[in-house]
Write a structure and sequence with these properties.
Layout (H helix, E strand, L loop, with lengths): L5 H7 L8 H5 L1 H42 L1
Length: 69
């Protein structure tokens, strides 16, 4: 982070810092954490796909605008 804003400072005070090891060692949470990680990876892949399609559409629009000039 290049600079720290006042908003960042306020956000830090909202939650107590905890150790994630307790979650990892909890057998009830292991499946939940694994599912969360898998869903995050899937969602990120989908987001990249949408981003790529939007970029293609923008390129096509720009190309058509250049042709009309």
């Amino acid at each position: 982070m290049l600079f720290k804003s006042r908003q960042d400072e306020l956000r830090e005070d909202l939650f107590e810092v905890t150790n994630p090891i307790n979650l990892i060692n909890n057998p009830d949470m292991t499946d939940y954490l694994a599912l969360m990680m898998a869903n995050t990876n899937y969602t990120n892949a989908q987001s990249l796909g949408v981003k790529n399609e939007i970029e293609k559409i923008i390129s096509l629009i720009n190309e058509e605008l250049r042709k009309k000039k």
